[in-house]
Amino acid sequence: MYKCALILAAGKGKRMKSDLPKVLHKVCDKEMVNHVIDTMRKSEIENVNVIIGKGAELVKEATSNKNVSYSMQEEQLGTGHAVKCAKDFLEGKDGVVAIFTGDAPLITEATVKNLIDFHQKGDYKASIITAVIDNPEGYGRIIRNEDSSVKKIVEHKDCTVDELKVNEINSGMYCFDIKSLLKSLDKIDNNNAQGEYYLPDVIGIFKEEGLKIGAMAVPFDEILGVNSRVQLSAVSKVMQRRINEKHMENGTTLIDSDSTYIGADVVIESDTIIYPGNVLQGETVIKTGCILYPNSRIQDSVIGKNVTVQSSVILESTVGEDTTVGPFAYIRPESKIGNKARIGDFVEIKKSTIGDNTKVSHLTYIGDAEVGEGCNFGCGTVVVNYDGKAKHKTVIGNKSFIGCNTNLVSPVKVEDNTYIAAGSTITNTVPEGSLAIARAKQVVKEGWVDKKGLLK
Ligand code: UD1
Ligand code: MG
């Protein structure tokens, strides 16, 4: 059977008090709408169409690598109107359409698959995901007939006193037979408390036409929607717990799961230990046997096996195996750190490669440089890569010893097996096998203190 999905994402989300469209707010480092799209894909739904309106260009940009199509809803006249705007997408299709909203990212692949299954097996023309909750305030209510079949959905603001008491709510997530849905869309009106075209009204229309309707209840935390920052935080907590539990089940130790923030797309191999205060983001991969001591942020980076990191920031870079990073290191984008290397305290590496077994232990800046294997950087080395106008490159060969407090004025080359004396400012090539000293010679004035009458 052909399956497609619509994701409603045209609203602004006024209560977020944000310039960003609501569906682009992130939950566990991924835009809410992208969570929903990814869940549709995992549920084997072929075509996904996103209904955009407020901030359309931004939503398009944020979803550009997701292979989805778009329908434009210029004015937000209600969820029914939003689906109408996707008529072009639905017309001529034969099968089912799953309808979800871009502001409810907790929906799982299992539930989407179950819904479609439930819909098919029950031979329904419409299936609704519902939940039974203690406080249904604000939600549309599922109104059932005496034989418990679904009669209609009534929005909170349109409920009678009796209807308000119903605590089975509409999740805003459905599965429809495409042809039946298309026929009903034109029949909904906006004669209601909010003057909007409600999508849930098609349920009542289906009922009147004798079409079979199913309702499938799921745990409430799968359908939690985000309308405010408080709800964004609540949803993030649920998502984070799920992500962390998945990693723990796969063999990662989290010393304190509640204070470990792992993005939705992060991959962690087994036998890694993560201490509190770590934030792992983007498409980061942590290989096996690593120890992430407290308080690091690692984004879009690959960390090799048996690496230890502490209180450091690593962005868009790779770190080789058995290397140690930190405390207090800053590895900036496009850096590649080799195996068994050391990037120590107060070291910043920017757009540079550092070879295997090279040690950069303390207080050093390396930018736009290629550094070979087995080098040792003394404390306080600075690669002077910027002349005020442009950045220049420094190349350092293998097994070089860079003395403490050295400046390497780029562009400059330090060849293999060299020594640089502490305190040197290097401006010319240091040839292979040589020692370079580039500092003023020491002058000693014997007896000077006494002569000056300064002796204490
Ligand atoms: C909707 C349901 C309600 C259900 C609740 C669950 C309707 C009328 N009501 O109410 O029964 O209990 O979800 O959370 O559908 N949107 C558009 N275009 C529009 C209007 C909305 O794209 O013209 C999008 C919004 O961006 C949002 C989603 O549809 O992502 C839901 O709209 P919202 O206004 O939040 O509906 P609710 O009042 O929550
Ligand atoms: Mg809502």
TrEMBL record:
Catalytic activity annotation: alpha-D-glucosamine 1-phosphate + acetyl-CoA = N-acetyl-alpha-D-glucosamine 1-phosphate + CoA + H(+); N-acetyl-alpha-D-glucosamine 1-phosphate + UTP + H(+) = UDP-N-acetyl-alpha-D-glucosamine + diphosphate
Gene behind the chain: glmU
InterPro entries in the cross-refs: Bifunctional_GlmU, GlmU-like, GlmU_C_LbH, Hexapep, Hexapep_transf_CS, NTP_transferase_dom, Nucleotide-diphossugar_trans, Trimer_LpxA-like_sf
Name under which the protein is recorded: Bifunctional protein GlmU
Residues involved in acetyl-CoA binding: N385, Y386, A422, R439
Cofactor binding mode and count: Binds 1 Mg(2+) ion per subunit.
Subunit architecture: Homotrimer.
Sequence segments annotated as region (Pyrophosphorylase): 1-229
N-acetyltransferase: annotated segments: 251-456
Catalytic residues identified in the record: H362 (proton acceptor)
EC code: 2.7.7.23, 2.3.1.157
Binding positions (UDP-N-acetyl-alpha-D-glucosamine): 8-11, 22, 73, 78-79, 140, 155, 170, 227, 332, 350, 365, 376
Binding site for Mg(2+): D103, N227
Protein's cellular compartments: Cytoplasm
Segments for region (Linker): 230-250
Pathway: Nucleotide-sugar biosynthesis; UDP-N-acetyl-alpha-D-glucosamine biosynthesis; UDP-N-acetyl-alpha-D-glucosamine from N-acetyl-alpha-D-glucosamine 1-phosphate: step 1/1; Nucleotide-sugar biosynthesis; UDP-N-acetyl-alpha-D-glucosamine biosynthesis; N-acetyl-alpha-D-glucosamine 1-phosphate from alpha-D-glucosamine 6-phosphate (route II): step 2/2; Bacterial outer membrane biogenesis; LPS lipid A biosynthesis
A single GO molecular function term of this UniProt record: UDP-N-acetylglucosamine diphosphorylase activity
Keyword Acyltransferase: yes
Family annotation (NCBIfam families): glmU (TIGR01173), PRK14354.1 (NF010934)
GO cellular component, one term: membrane
